[in-house]
Amino acid sequence: MKGICVLGATGSIGVSTLDVVKRHADLYKVIALTANTNIDTLFEQCIEFKPEVAVVVNEQKGAEFKEKIKGTAIASMSVLIGAEALVEVATLTNVDSVMAAIVGAAGLLSALAAAKAGKTVLLANKESLVMSGDIFMQAIKESDAKLLPIDSEHNAIFQCMPAGYVAGQDAPEARRILLTASGGPFRTTPVEELHNVTVDQAVAHPKWSMGRKISVDSATMMNKGLELIEACLLFNMQPEQIQVVIHPQSIIHSMVDYVDGSVLAQMGNPDMRIPIAHAMAWPERFDSGVAPLDIFAVKHMDFEPASLERFPCLRLAIEAIKAGGIMPTVLNAANEIAVEAFLDEKIRFTDIPVIIEKSMAEFSATEADSLEHILDADKQAREQAHSMIKTLLA
Ligand code: NAD
Ligand code: MG
Fold it and tell me: Looking at ligand 1, which residue's alpha carbon is closest to its atom 25?
């Protein structure tokens, strides 16, 4: 039996993870579940999975949660409140695997703590890797932790890498990665109409059901930009070795191009339980609960290049990884602030890349040599993006 801690249990990835756990109760025992504010979902999950600990980050919701469990079947469960508790549960001795599924920079410290503690890190929270880059990969190496990608593209690439491949290693026989993207909801929308798109349109992804932030990132293709950076780190590649390919059917989840001309692809229905089950069972395999792929229903698959004019966020991400240092951190922080402002209907969809680009222009790519430096860059970039938004609205 392996002990699992699910950080961000109440989100889209968290819920899919627990669906897979439920199918393999003989292999996985839930040790800890965490939520930010959604205590109703957390309560139901705790009743079902009986973890030893539940964490609620939001203080007020945490107090409500403690009241809520009184007199119930989970009354004796330990409840921790606040962000520090995320690190605490991610490093518990009886936790073997940590699903890092918090959205955004809020997931960094707990994911990094799991890496430093030598856990098997199931990494969905791409923002934490984009921010901390080499520091994260170094922590994995030094503690002999296992890093298994959950992001569907990176999980696909991992599956297509040479046998026995370990994340972060060199694989010179793999010369290129073809990183697939659905193209999101605005793949064919006339560019001049993009400034009028609504939040509802932006979060309505054609192929995947996901949290709101990553759905907006998919619409701007910042998601693909963050994934390009993520791929450089996970597979030790240069940005030039990664080709973004728009594949609207989302059946191929990415490909690896080998020096002999062989191209290996991983395919499957677009359902996150597939990469989650792959990582949880690795190096073996088990049932994910996903229906078999109906290849005749797929009929045909299309591939097209991604336009950097249509998707300036992708261009900015490529610029950030090429600049290196703290630039990916700045890009990510400014994006989080801009996306939040768009979701709050304060700015337009097309303002998102403008705010990020202007924020990035205020920074130079100093070396990301310590966590303090990274957290400082993150904080400053958020302030910068906030002030850009203020200027824009003035
Ligand atoms: P979501 O919004 O559905 O869920 C986010 C989770 O994080 C929730 O459990 C929430 O309680 C928690 N959370 C939010 N803010 C927090 C905070 N400040 N402190 C602590 N916890 C907080 O998001 P999601 O779609 O499940 O995505 C989670 C992560 O996985 C993201 O990094 C995303 O990029 C990545 N990812 C998601 C998908 C997908 O299909 N949903 C696919 C690939 C990668
Ligand atoms: Mg992805």
Answer: 211
117 Cα: distance to centroid of ligand 1 (angstroms): 22
For residue 128, which atom of ligand 1 is closest to its CA?
A: 32
Domain check: are 168 and 299 in the same one?
yes
Are 156 and 304 in the same domain?
A: yes
pLDDT in tens for each of the 394 residues of the chain? 999 999 999 999 999 999 999 999 999 999 999 999 999 999 999 999 999 999 999 999 999 999 999 999 999 999 999 999 999 999 999 999 999 999 999 999 999 999 999 999 999 999 999 999 999 999 999 999 999 999 999 999 999 999 999 999 999 999 999 999 999 999 999 999 999 999 999 999 888 889 999 999 999 999 999 999 999 999 999 999 999 999 999 999 999 999 999 999 999 999 999 999 999 999 999 999 999 999 999 999 999 999 999 999 999 999 999 999 999 999 999 999 999 999 999 999 999 999 999 999 999 999 999 999 999 999 999 999 999 999 999 9
Is 282 among the domain residues? no
**Domain identity same for 191 and 302:** yes
User: Which residue from 12, 109, 213 has its CB within 8 A of the most atoms of ligand 1, so it is best to mutate?
Assistant: 12
Query: Per the structure, how many domains does the chain have?
Result: 3
**Which residues have C-beta within 8 Å of that of residue 103, sequence separation ≥ 6?**
8, 11, 125, 127, 211, 213, 214
Amino acid at 236: N
Judge if 23 and 123 occupy the same domain: yes
Closest CA to 57 of 31, 88, 30: 88
Would residue 390 count as lying in a domain?
Answer: yes
Based on the fold, state whether residues 145 and 161 are members of the same structural domain.
Answer: no
pTM of the model: 0.98
Selection from 146, 183, 158, 134 nearest residue 302 by Cα = 183
- Please report the DSSP string for 299-339 in residue order: -----EEPPTTT-HHHHHHHHHHHH-TTHHHHHHHHHHHHH
